[in-house]
Amino acid sequence: MQSLKEFWESRYRKMDIRESGNIGYSVRYNYWYYRAKERALLKAIKRHGIVIKGKKIADIGSGTGFIVDFLLRREPASILGVDISQKSVDYLKGKYSGHKNVNFQCLDITRSKPQGGSVYDLVDVYDVMCLIVQDEDFLQAMKHICSMVAKPGLILLVDMFPEKTVRLGDYIVSRPREDYLQILTSNAFEILEIVPQFYLFNRNISNRIIRRMVNLFPVVIYVIDGIALSLNIFGDGNKSGASFKLLVAKRK
Ligand SMILES: C[S@@+](CC[C@H](N)C(=O)[O-])C[C@H]1O[C@@H](n2cnc3c(N)ncnc32)[C@H](O)[C@@H]1O
Fold first, then answer.
1. Per-residue pLDDT averaged across 215-238, rounded?
2. Residue 131 belongs to what H/E stretch?
3. 22-26, 60-64, 78-82, 124-128 — which is least confidently predicted?
4. What residues does each domain of the chain span?
5. pLDDT for residue 168
6. What is the CA radius of gyration of the chain?
7. Which end of the chain is less enclosed by CB atoms within 10 A, N or C?
8. What torsion, rounded to 10 degrees, do the Cα atoms 226, 48, 62, 201 define?
9. 234 pLDDT band (50/70/90 cuts)?
10. Between β-strands 56-60 and 120-125, what pairing exists: parallel, antiparallel or unpaired?
11. pLDDT digits (tens, 9 = 90+) for 169-184
């Protein structure tokens, strides 16, 4: 079995959004998938009055830069992106070379924190924790992340938060809200909310015809998901039927 680093180095080839998003679907699908993530993020920002402008931000597992793009449009003071993949870091350094306030470091968050020991107003962790399979590594990564947050400061973290730990293959383990709650509470954080991101994206579709339709017309999923979210059809918060959710935690 490949190490986590080897896995990501071999997954990144073209550095397109499929590779950091859902590689089983088209670029078009992933475009709308990321738009759905953005919609949930905007909702959380609005609901909790989160300010990006002028803030110091760390992005854990930057991938192809979806969050960096989102944040830059909102004029933060600085962004530090970290990723276990050297390919990702090299790509991102090139992509954002014109931005003096954006830096990247290649590191494994289960092993170390960014150099310099700075603290950040906001640390976001998008689709990374569920890739950390070993429980000790998970704990260590959470400790590093918590210690990077200023007082007061925020963590925005995306995972599935199932009722019980779910192991999906060799490289994906999703842990319940209670596991996060325990670690966050013991590090002086409170969970403000868990916002559903989407219901229909990121599902395994085995039917070839439906899969083809979804790859061709993902905007339909985006619209249906948006309606379901605004009507609260599948429920709100952690107990909703959403496949992935955004946890907002505040350091007290
Ligand atoms: C599913 S991608 C998500 C990328 C980005 N956050 C997004 O939402 O588009 C996960 C990213 O986390 C990185 N990663 C995985 N494990 C990591 C670790 N232990 N430390 C730092 N980065 C990690 C991977 O290299 C990959 O770029």
1. 89
2. none
3. 22-26
4. 4-251
5. 85
6. 17
7. N
8. -20
9. confident
10. parallel
11. 888 999 999 999 999 9
Query: Which phi and psi (to 5°) does residue 44 adopt?
Result: -65, -40
Categorize the per-residue pLDDT at 77 as very low, low, confident or very high, splitting at 50, 70 and 90. Answer: very high
Ligand 1 midpoint to CA 233 (Å): 31
> From the CA of 63, how far away is ligand 1's center (Å)?
5
Query: Is the CB of residue 8 below 6 angstroms from any atom belonging to ligand 1?
Result: yes
Q: Which of 6, 7, 8 to mutate to test the pocket of ligand 1 (most atoms within 8 A of CB)?
A: 8
Cα 3 to the center of its chain, rounded Å: 20
If you ran DSSP here, which 8-state letter would residue 42 be given? H
Closest CA to 172 of 196, 138, 197, 139: 138
Residue 4: CB within 6 Å of ligand 1?
A: yes
Is the shortest distance between the CB of 130 and ligand 1 below 6 Å? no
Going from the Cα of 13 to the center of ligand 1, the distance in angstroms, rounded, reads: 15
Is the CB–ligand 1 distance for residue 109 below 6 Å? Answer: yes
Confidence of residue 137 (pLDDT cuts 50, 70, 90): very high
For the domain 4-251, what is the CATH superfamily, name and number?
A: Vaccinia Virus protein VP39 (3.40.50.150)
**Contact of 202 with 127, CB cutoff 8 Å:** no
- Residue 218 Cα to ligand 1 midpoint, Å, equals 24
